[in-house]
Amino acid sequence: MNPVDKRRRDFLGQAAVAAGAMIAPGVFLYDYAKAAAPATPPAGPPATSGPVSAKVRWGMLIDTTKCASGCRECVDACNRENGLPGTTRPTDSQWIRKVDLKDLRSGATLSAPVMCQHCAEPPCVDVCPTGASFKRADGIVLVDRHTCIGCRYCMMACPYKARSFVHEPTTGQKTEVPRGKGCVEACTLCVQRVDRGGRPACAESCEAAGHGAILFGDLNDPQSEISKRIRSVATTQLRADLRTDNGVRYQGL
After folding, report:
1. What is the pLDDT of residues 206-215, one digit of tens each?
2. Is the domain of 236 the same as that of 130?
């Protein structure tokens, strides 16, 4: 046999043995991992609820009779969840703002959180030149920061002043909530939570504080708690005359 061929054969044989040695531990560890895995999954966020579908329309009902003036539970929870600074300078992002209202005839006052209204016919989407502002099939209105050019047409078109422009470099960002200087942003209904089967942070914090002023759910499901409540009490959409068909409804206005 040619010495070169013999060396080549010996080399290939040794390589095969080495490959087997490397593969075998991998198989063993994989089998061991399966055997050692707990019978029930560890505690954590629920699994993704499935693909986005037009069968669902997410929305919120805010009961102003339960919303206390001066309470900031929803605002603070939003800031924590989405990595917002929480300051109120004119240039700072604010996805939820508390608004105090007074009836000039009766003198009655009330307080209510105002955020993106997640319109079925969103003006922000209509005016966006790049398609960065868009509405998901389930009714959540979002901004694609990769295609937002910072023109702020959507801010001018929004009747609710619900959008903010990021003027400065961002810090303390959350992995699931990318933000960036030069982009427009607004309430996302905590889409990162909703897609895991959860609720927006504002709704959870309001309930935890004992107020229960924010109810989140599927407006398309007649059996959902939010749909039943809307059928049983008088509710209002902000600027209903604009016919944007808001996903956020108010009780007690």
Report:
1. 999 999 999 9
2. yes
